[in-house]
Write a structure and sequence with these properties.
about 425 residues; mainly beta; Porin; two-stranded antiparallel ribbon; about 45% strand; globular
Length: about 425
Amino acid sequence: MGQSINKNGVAINTVTTAVPFLRINPDARAGGMGDVGIASPADANGLYANPAKLAFIDSSDFGFAVGFSPWLKALVNDIYLANLTGYYKVKKMQTIALSVRYFSLGNITFTDASGQETGQFRPNEFAIDMHYARLLGKYFSIAASLRVIYSNLAGGQQVDGNLIKPGVAGAGDISWYFRKNFKKDGVKMSHDLMVGMAITNIGSKISYTSNVVKDFIPTNLGIGLGYTLNIDDKNGVGIYTDFNKLMVPTPDSVDKDKNGVYDFRQKSSISGMFTSFADAPGGAAEEFREITVGVGAEYLYRKMFGVRFGYFYEPRSKGNRQFLTAGLTVKYSVVGLNFSYLIPTNIQRNPLDNTLRFSLLFDFKAGGNKGGSNNTGISLVDDTPKKKEKKSKEPKTEEVQPQKDIQPKEAPVEKNLQPIEPK
């Protein structure tokens, strides 16, 4: 697979994988900030960027979220990505979660070589995840995730005599998250520093035929930094950035054993992960071009209304995805609604160009208690602690109620009993 040169003289060598929907973040909050979310404050949908953030959801005991993202809306109306997420705090230090992503690719009509219709098919892909997050102290958390991946793109069809079947793979994530609040006594303003890292989709390769050569899934290394300024009890501002790199081999045209299959495709998934940092044909310069960058910012008022902006950048030779994003948050009681909108900034088309997507979140306290928490930073949940009434140290004195006048009862009158004389 040789590199191609575009009209600007840039060598195009995009890193591709199977099941790329796993790299689509369905969280509309992240979508409004340039797909940034590794080191942003925690909520239910935050697990798609960094599952370790689940351990820092301390404003509620359980909750769930749903999301919907139209895909290629300008061309078709039956392709979309939907997700469902639920979490539960087992104990103060532990959180478990389950999430499902479903990607529908619409309806496809198959034809033969003469153009005759041979059937209809609705390709689809989905992933089911289980997550476990745990606090390791006051400022640090880790998480482990397991994932089952199913991809049915053209089941039952044949290509070059090979029967196409659904692809199945297994994968896992390892992630960590750091959050610390800096606040001086007697000062309303405080600061939050957040750092996160997630290695996602560590797992087997996937195949759609009986061919022994399988395709890589999108194993990814993500590192994030975040900072929030809590101006007072009502206003908060945050800025976040993510750096991501696919940990799969860079395409090249080397075929040392002359078997007709490029050597990079024959690597194992683990070997591909470790060699992905130094295998680009263009050397270190090309390796750095494989890193995507996202930057986002948000402002929240009373943690109930907010706006977001972001920018995503991918180098021209590695896909050329570049776009601006905007987002909006509305929160009332236990319900939060996030919107995001993508604005293209170059000629490279994006499946989400000028598309509005949303996420709906629900957070609950056990027993229906709406009490606050010690959560810091910007959050969808109103977690401001309620002030308790100070108890007076003075001993309480019982008030003596005036008693009604009680009339003394008259003494019983003794009856004179005359002795009975014998007859």
